[in-house]
């Protein structure tokens, strides 16, 4: 009865305390990992939290398959894109080619270049950075040109905000 209740409400338990719930599932429901993953398919954000806790804990990460690592990266791109690059640096239990398509579709330049490097395409990695820089530089140029023309019409504050946004993107 406890087992079925935990599995029935696993998505809610993960929201309450992600780490403790994940630990509970691994410690006492290790044979139910496939069932937990199936149940969490309907709750991708909770599935992401569960997978992330497992992957981040070296004693738990062995419970994840390569396919689940790939799923984790896809969910991370969706829910926590700023963490993808660091995750890819710290882990190797994923399909680089598959993940390359995922990070590219989400426009994650750093992660895209890193995966290209991991598969030996250093030229491609450099090209990704150059393309990103060119795009950001063009945006900045456009904002500067707009600001020059708008300054005369009194929209200086809005233009200054837009310029700050572009500079932040270049720095990021």
Automatic annotation (TrEMBL):
Q: Which Gene Ontology terms of cellular component type are present? A: HOPS complex; late endosome
Q: Might you name a Gene Ontology BP term for this protein?
A: endosomal vesicle fusion
Q: Which Pfam families match?
A: TPR_Vps41
Q: Which domain of life is it from?
A: Eukaryota
Q: What is this protein called?
A: Uncharacterized protein
Q: Which organism is it from?
A: Paramoeba aestuarina
